[in-house]
TrEMBL record:
Gene3D superfamilies: Electron Transport, Fmn-binding Protein, Chain A (2.30.110.10). It comes from the Bacteria. InterPro entries: F420H2_bilvrd_red/Heme_oxyg, Pyridox_Oxase_N, Split_barrel_FMN-bd. Residues 22-131 form the Pyridoxamine 5'-phosphate oxidase N-terminal domain. It comes from Streptomyces luteolus. This is Pyridoxamine 5'-phosphate oxidase family protein. The lineage of its organism: Bacteria, Bacillati, Actinomycetota, Actinomycetes, Kitasatosporales. Keywords: Oxidoreductase.
Amino acid sequence: MQAEEFTRRDTAERKRDTLDRLNAERDIWLSTSHPEHGPHQVPLWFLWDGRAVWMCTGANSATARNVRAEPRVRLALPDTFDVVLLQGEAEHWPARDVPKGPADAFAGKFGWDPRTEREPFLYLRVPPRTVRAWRGEPELSGRVVLRDGAWLAQ
């Protein structure tokens, strides 16, 4: 496998590229952990609302149980060369209580509305506290583009 050629990006470019991907992509990997059962990772559809990642999972899933017990999570976009990793604490709402705006936007993006399902669903919102973005080893230095909830490049 041959590595792609690229020009090393500054923080502002990494931020722009990260936001472009968060707005355009469909899938994200969510990693949770349970105090007794350990780590758990699943791919989920997601919506970026400009401040947070919104996802939905079965209300009785391992993911839902883990988030209730331990809200600290990690998220990753599915690309091993153009890496975007997010960390934050998950907030959650049963489908019947989720704010209308994000739930409508989620349904509009995917053509699927978990609020209408017979089985219960749980919406998750993760405002990132840290975002790391890099393309290959040359960009490992300076990979943090959001720290303590604030973008480093305005």
